[in-house]
Amino acid sequence: MSKTPFIIGIAGGTGSGKSTFTNRLKDIFKDQVTVLYYDNYYKAHNDLPFEERKKINYDHPDAFETELLLEHLKMLKAGKSIECPVYDYKQHNRTDEVTIVEPRDIILLEGILVLADSRLRDQMDIKIFVEADADERILRRVVRDVKERGRDIDNIVEQYLTTVKPMHYLYVEPTRVYADLVINSGMNDMALDVMATKINSLIECKN
Ligand code: ADP
Ligand code: C5P
Ligand code: MG
């Protein structure tokens, strides 16, 4: 690693395609980039039973252990590796595992609320907001949460109406104004190409 890493924030509503976009960049640049998912920093709730953990509002900024993420960003910027928590959506809890994440010249920081905290925003060199209509986002979420996150339809609908939707309009959507780039969906090949070109030029400059 040469200098202070270049930090790219990738925000947007649930189901907008943030993780898809981030993973596509990771596939291109592999170990040349560090990827941090804010979701891995959801607070641990080892003291609460499953039924109680299920009821938590996971779309509110307080659901995240932002201090730990800030500490980890500081370490990565200092060239140190971090022990990143691993989150389990099926258990609504952090696992006992960690992944060792190495510092790289480029850091991608992805999550619904990464632009909602000024301390995180202040560290970003580029801020991206992934845009998608709410109906498409919820449809994608239904399919994904049933297939990958151990949810059933009733539970997804209830959670969407009580917390996900209202928090989206309260905390996620208003952060669009901070974005340097608003991109249409995570499968946007042109946006991927533009970001890949930018990251390539940054990597070349740093070497
Ligand atoms: P986010 O991380 O923003 O919640 P994901 O990237 O996980 O969203 O996307 C949610 C689901 O929708 C995934 O299963 C993904 O494969 C799918 N998906 C993402 N973008 C699109 C798109 N443009 N068209 C169709 N499906 C998409
Ligand atoms: O990938 P995505 O951006 O959709 O991930 C964030 C979403 O994960 C939030 O909208 C939140 O409701 C959901 N979540 C959940 N259960 C948890 C933790 C997060 O449904 N235990
Ligand atoms: Mg995601």
From TrEMBL:
Instruction: Specify which residues bind ATP according to the UniProt entry for this protein.
Output: 12-19
Q: What's a GO cellular component annotated to this UniProt protein?
A: cytoplasm
Q: Which CDD domains does the record cross-reference, listed alphabetically?
A: UMPK
The biological pathway it contributes to is: Pyrimidine metabolism; UMP biosynthesis via salvage pathway; UMP from uridine: step 1/1; Pyrimidine metabolism; CTP biosynthesis via salvage pathway; CTP from cytidine: step 1/3
Q: Which UniProt keywords apply?
A: ATP-binding, Cytoplasm, Kinase, Nucleotide-binding, Transferase
In what residue span(s) does the Phosphoribulokinase/uridine kinase domain sit?
Answer: 7-186
What GO terms describe the biological role, i.e. biological process, of this protein?
CTP salvage; UMP salvage
GO molecular function annotations of the record: ATP binding; cytidine kinase activity; uridine kinase activity
Query: What subcellular compartments does it reside in?
Result: Cytoplasm
- Entry keyword Metal-binding: no
Could you confirm whether the keyword Nucleotide-binding appears in this record?
Answer: yes
The kind of enzyme this is, by top-level EC class, is: transferase
Transmembrane domains' residue ranges: none
Source organism, top-level taxon: Bacteria
Listed under catalytic activity are: cytidine + ATP = CMP + ADP + H(+); uridine + ATP = UMP + ADP + H(+)
Which EC number applies? 2.7.1.48
Pfam families from the entry? PRK (PF00485)
InterPro entries linked to this entry: P-loop_NTPase (IPR027417), PRK/URK (IPR006083), Uridine_kinase (IPR026008), Uridine_kinase-like (IPR000764)
Give the family per the record.
Belongs to the uridine kinase family.
Q: What HAMAP family does its record include?
A: Uridine_kinase
The protein's matches in NCBIfam families, at most eight in alphabetical order, are given as: PRK05480.1, udk
Q: What's this protein's name? A: Uridine kinase
- The protein's gene is named udk
